[in-house]
Design brief:
It is built from 17 helices and 20 strands. With 461 residues, the chain is an alpha/beta fold. Helix 6 packs across helix 12 and helix 16 crosses helix 17.
Length: 461
């Protein structure tokens, strides 16, 4: 069991900023713990309003009023709410403590925390680590930035629970005592610069995952990713490295067609590569990171293999959608930054057509020029960033522009040859055209289904 200081909100006025999934879970938890809770959101209506009011949560809708925040005893931020909003700045200036939802929930957990972050691969690694731990007989709750918010796990947390938490930079920037038993940093490249302001601020947020670890904890790190190794330089936890490219003397490596863990005590084969069902070299690194977590928890290799064999990947992460006229369609809508898009592109051979664009949030599209050119690729640019995509890549590969997902799928299919692949890997946020990356991915899949119906009808005439 992890020892944590007693933390109480009974009788205190607590304001939760942001009524998305995490904020709503935090508000409900705080109300159950005896706080006088106000949930503040800029939206004027919430579908959950009746349920929240019945749970004793007061609502402030349409604004974040300074007076609401400055008169609170505690402010809790939902991850989607920037910490520099005027009302939140005013609260801090008035001496009101401000913490994030992840921090809040962690103070009441009874079990150990496995926290997983990185620019790309968090969801896949978190899901797989949870499956491996469960296959090994552990009581596991998976969530955080995906699935169940950490605040929704508190009531189920016991001393023998392992909480596997996907932790975003937005969540990590507002932690204080958050203490992972195992902290995983998969990789690091510029992202979310529209929110963090600079690469340095983004890096500082990511590195906070190690801030409260002790020498009795573990840091799982990607030996192939120099930036993430630099971010972990000050971590005092014991280290486990993994590599898809090198033969480490200590850590997880690829050897004899298997994922192998090497230690001073010897070598253990964990997972045959033939058991791995997810595509892409970068997703293999995610499998290795999950296996490192499972190994630290004492999970046997056979249980890891069972978990891996039943896992074919997540929706919107190199998700195979359909094949039409010999052309494959693949949905990687979760590739919301340039580095993630590059890794997706490098997962395929020649004959590639890539749909790129959306709301720009940093990075250099020119970094994609070489892998695209090597594959003789064509690009279809969409969204607010399409002019920037055209300017960055037009001298290197053919670039078309499309006004909608419907047009993008139609143009991509027309540009593809049998045996080729149409890949949605936007390298951008989705908010210019869609609610989130999931809606964007589902729109892509719906347009592919529509294309397939039309293609079949033409063939049958």
């Amino acid at each position: 069991m992890i020892e944590r200081d007693e933390f109480s909100v009974r009788g205190k006025r607590v304001v939760v900023a942001g009524a998305a999934r995490s904020g709503i879970a935090a508000a409900r938890l705080l109300a159950r713990r005896g706080a006088a809770v106000t949930l503040s959101d800029v939206r004027r209506e919430l579908p959950e309003e009746p349920e929240l009011r019945n749970a004793g949560v007061a609502l402030e809708l349409g604004e974040h009023a300074d007076a609401t925040f400055t008169t609170a005893d505690l402010v809790v931020l939902s991850p989607g709410v920037p910490a520099d909003l005027p009302a939140i700045r005013a609260a801090r200036q008035g001496g009101v403590p401000v913490i994030g939802e992840l921090e809040l929930a962690s103070r009441w957990l009874a079990g150990r925390i496995v926290a997983i972050t990185g620019t790309k691969g968090k969801s896949t690694t978190t899901t797989l680590a949870g499956r491996m731990l469960a296959a090994g007989g552990h009581k596991v709750l998976v969530g955080g930035n995906i699935g169940m918010a950490l605040s929704a796990q508190v009531e189920e947390s016991t001393a023998d629970t392992i909480h596997v938490v996907e932790a975003s930079s937005f969540q990590l920037e507002t932690i204080e005592r958050f203490h992972p038993w195992v902290a995983v940093l998969l990789n690091f490249s510029p992202d979310h610069l529209d929110r963090h302001g600079s690469v340095e601020e983004y890096a500082a947020a990511k590195s906070r995952i190690f801030a409260n670890q002790t020498p009795g904890d573990w840091a799982v790190l990607n030996a192939d990713d120099a930036p993430s190794l630099r971010l972990a330089e000050r971590a005092c936890a014991r280290r486990v490295l993994f590599s898809t490219e090198r033969q480490l003397p200590d850590g997880l490596v690829l050897d004899r067609d298997a994922i192998v863990r090497r230690t001073a005590a010897g070598e253990e084969s964990l997972i045959p590569l033939r058991s791995v069902r997810v595509p892409g070299r970068h997703l293999l690194a995610d499998v290795m990171a999950a296996a490192a977590v499972a190994s630290l928890a004492g999970v046997e290799a056979a249980a890891m293999v069972r978990a891996v064999e039943s896992f074919t990947g997540l929706e919107h992460a190199l998700e195979a959608v359909a094949e039409i006229g010999g052309v494959r369609f693949v949905n990687d809508s979760k590739a919301t930054n340039v580095e993630a898009a590059r890794r997706a592109i490098e997962s395929f051979d020649c004959g590639l057509v890539v749909i790129l664009g959306g709301r720009y949030k940093g990075g250099d599209f020119a970094d994609l020029a070489a892998p695209l050119a090597e594959r003789g690729a064509t690009v279809v640019a969409i969204g607010e960033a399409r002019d920037l995509v055209c300017a960055s890549l037009g001298a290197h590969v053919p670039v078309q522009s499309a006004d909608s997902m419907h047009a993008a799928v139609q143009q991509a299919f027309a540009a593809a040859a049998p045996g080729g692949t149409v890949l949605l890997a936007p390298a951008c946020a989705s908010f210019d055209m869609f609610r989130d990356y999931a809606e964007r991915g589902r729109s892509f899949k719906a347009e592919v289904a529509r294309l397939r119906q039309g293609w079949k009808a033409t063939r049958e005439q």
